[in-house]
Amino acid sequence: TAVQAEELQSSEGEWIPAACWHNCGGRCLLKAEVVDGIVKRVKTDDTREDSPDNPQQRACVRGRSQRQQVYGVDRLKYPMKRKHWEPGGGNKELRGNDEWVRISWDEATGIVASEIERIRNKYSNRSILVTGGDIGRALNLVGGHVGTWGTTSWGSWRWGPAYFGLQEGYFEHSINDRMDLRNSQLIVLWGLNPAWSSPGSPTYNFLQAKKAGARVIVIDPMYSESAELLGDEWVPVHPGTDHALMLGMAHTLIEEDDPDSNPLIDWDFLKSCTVGFDQEMMPEGADKEANFKDYVLGTHDGQPKTAEWASEISGVEAGVIRRIARDIASTNRVALLTGWAPARIKNSDSWPQMFMTFGAMTGHMAQPGRMTGVSCHFGTGNGGPRLVMGGGSGVPPGAENDVSDSLVHAEMWDAILKGEYTAGYNDKRDIDIQMIYHGMGATLQTRDGQSKGIDVHKNVEFVVTNGHFITTNAKYSDIVLPATTPWEREGGFNVGNRDALFYYRNVIDPLFECKDDAQITTEIGMKLGFTAEEVYGDVSPRQQLFNQIAGAQVINKAGTDYEPLVTITDKDITEWGVEGEPQKGRITVSELEEKGVYQVERKPGDNYGYIAQEAFRKDPEANPLETATGKLEIYSEALAEYVKGIGFTEIDPIPTYNPATEGYEDTYKNFQAKEKGDYPLQVINPHYLRRAHTIFDNNPWLREAWPNDVYVSTADARERGVKSGDTVVIESKHGKTLRIAHVTERLIPGTIGLMHGAWVEMDEEKDIDKAGSDNILTGAIATGQAISGWNSTICDFRKWEGKDLKLDKLWEPRTV
Amino acid sequence: MGQMGFYYDLETCIGCKGCQIACKDKNDLKTGELFREVHDFEGGSFPSPYVDHVTISCNHCDKPKCVENCPTGAMHKREDGIVDFDHSKCVGCKMCMWSCPYDGPVYLKEEGKVAKCDFCKDLLENNEDPACVSACTMRAIDYGDIEELKEKYGTNQSIRYFPDLDITKPNIVVKQKSR
């Protein structure tokens, strides 16, 4: 009631560090003020003096809205069953449209267990697909399950770079740390927009580098908020043509370089640290003609990769290509930073190697102010190993999975429909999936080819989802199981940027009948005839949390090794009721419990700085890389072999340009004659501050703040008679979706910006989505190293003649 | 006691709307109710576009029309210059909303009354910063005595996208992008 609300607002509560656990690309401190077991409001980091060197880890728009998530009216409250479900599925076509009926936990776990048994007996364990979560712990006790894999967010940065000598950018980094970024005179942001994709401190860190004097060039199809804040120049480029653009830049350097009068290429670096650049530098046994320089010059294929050639593909003027190439090559200290987005392109397996090659040619690697590599997610503008980290929980590993089959994300919906998947080079295998368990994640929403995914979900015999809401996964399920959020659990650590470690503890009791995923898995395992210990071990949640605290480590003062973070006394161990040993650390348990963060104090020139591959550059013979030759491989047979072995498409050992499937060239019926085809526009899927991938899409405060319009360029809109505010239908060969148009000058004409992660809302009669779901437009097309190539999608749009869309903030929540 | 005011660095604002959400959380607001709102403005033309963001709440004006036109005295100016409201006196007539050129006052449907930014006066009493200020990941919002803000950040003759400042004399200092 209003009176109670008034009382709640006027009472002083306890501030508890609360998890902000999302896969958003950042990590920050969130605290919840709890009064009588209810969260009254949240705040962010006020635990330290705020300064550019040591900023507070402030939460973004999404973290600040989290009460609307945890307390959402549409939270799943009880286990639910699809009304017309029956063993074997019943009328499976009703999935997605059926009514929901509340059932007990006993009935729900009983149904799941009996369907597992029925399906493995009728078919086999190879018919049970798990897309995420820890349900495998239960399933592996009865013979295992099929899994899924792919490059996800990384695109072609996921597996390839290990073969040619750079890092993938999430677990390890090829770029220097944020303090060193201030030494760069020129920063190139190639396809990254930290202002939207890396919440928390990264954009603020970039601002410090800018204030320290760096010029910034932004290369991106969209004039992003990062371009507005940081950019001295914006270079608009057609999506997926970055590789061609960079070849044009490389050609410029090769053409214009003169070691004496106009040194643009760092020959010393190429000779000492790389293989494959020219005939003289080819690795032993390789065909000398197959070198990179001759490819760029067109010596053997008759096609020089000139700035003009690159311009025709990338849309960047030849003069600009040459100017940028010279600018980068003739500036002393340059940071060449790229996000994963330009690599989320079908056929882009050679792009990361191209990026490395240009970095190597210009020598902007492995020295202060000089770096070349991935700058995104936790490592945005701040490379290097973690300075502080949590310990392990002590939960024993589960039983082994006896099923070895694993489906590639970009192929799996098609593979399930066809009954055959690609297991490797010339290796196709039969598959007959009849059950899908979505333990966590948003697989049906976030994997390529969603229309086929929905078909799959209407075909198999059983689908179950653990979740917080009627998400896309849940919507097309038979049984949905309400899971707790981390606010309702015991606690733990969240890691993010290397400087800080975030600790969270229990904020509120589980809402309604929600249970932890671990508990759900345990109860299903028990229904399958096992004990709780057999499923999950016997480490209590309290002991798990304590183990993580006791095992937390922080870099020592010299920056050479790690030491315990938390001091633990006998009294702590008694109070917690756990087993453990006292230890000496930096902070007390109660300080950790109160602050919720430990941040390593930084200053320029301290012992915690990071220059990627520094030792390698200084002495490459003594400190070889983990590649076949120990060098950066501009020619990499290992990379070509690896990609071939996956079984989809092949590449050359040197970074040649391979046009993307459904990329820029495919927008033409005839590229030479410049005749456009049926899908003349390209789609990019920017990460959008309304959501962290799919999470928060239903959050009313964020729906109001970020309406999820589709961005279309003024030129394309004018051609189609579309104005801002018009409802448009966007159509690819794989599906159709509606959105309200935001007509903008901020996009390169020929490209639309459909924001990533909206929850599909099918109008089944018209076979059209109303939510702007990105994957309704993508097909199940696998290439290279199993790339999910979302940013290579082509489409057209037109004014929608049907009923105008209502703003998302006015949509009814999916309350059950 | 002086006059409280806000400072906005719109050169640094990235339009994330974090301040807008932190304000909603602090004041427990529903959809359609915004005490602070971030507006986006795009301009220029390809390939030289620009985008501006403006965060705005009540400006706690020197000559607040909302106070001037409030028939019940619910809307009032405190000694520290904060324009505050008294719900025991508010009859929900919306005169203040009609009077304000900045959409400061907001009608709360459920209560049938008007409310608005009160500068997080309860937080100020505890020596804490207003929710929007401590929320900003770009450190683009500051607050304090308006004379001190002017001394530190300068003054505005006019502010892009804002109505004429002479109408109500808003207590804000804005750093604008040069265009």
UniProtKB/TrEMBL annotation, chain B:
PANTHER family: ANAEROBIC DIMETHYL SULFOXIDE REDUCTASE CHAIN B-RELATED (PTHR43177:SF5), PROTEIN NRFC (PTHR43177)
Protein name: Anaerobic dimethyl sulfoxide reductase subunit B (DMSO reductase iron-sulfur subunit)
Cofactor(s) it depends on: [4Fe-4S] cluster
Domain 4Fe-4S ferredoxin-type residue range list: 4-34, 47-80, 81-111
Entry keyword set: 4Fe-4S, Electron transport, Iron, Iron-sulfur, Metal-binding, Repeat, Transport
Organism: Salipaludibacillus aurantiacus
Role summary: Electron transfer subunit of the terminal reductase during anaerobic growth on various sulfoxide and N-oxide compounds.
PROSITE patterns in the cross-refs: 4FE4S_FER_1, 4FE4S_FER_2
CDD domains reported in the protein's UniProt record: DMSOR_beta_like (cd16371)
Any GO molecular function: metal ion binding
InterPro entries linked to this entry: 4Fe4S_Fe-S-bd, 4Fe4S_Fe_S_CS, DMSO_DmsB, ET_IronSulfur_Cluster-Binding
